[in-house]
Amino acid sequence: MRKWVNRETFDELLIDNRDEGRCEIEAAMPVWNAVHPIVPNAFLRYGIVHNEEEHTNHLEQVQVCFRRNGILFIVSCRTYPKTTYHVTADLSELRHIDRYEMTRASEGLQVPNRIGTLTIRKIEEWVTYETARFRKLEPINAANERAITEFRQKLSVLPDIQWNRDRTAGTMERHGLRYWFEIHQTGIHERLELHYSCRTLDDFLLLSDNRYE
Question: Is the whole model's pTM more than 0.85, yes or no?
Answer without folding.
Answer: no
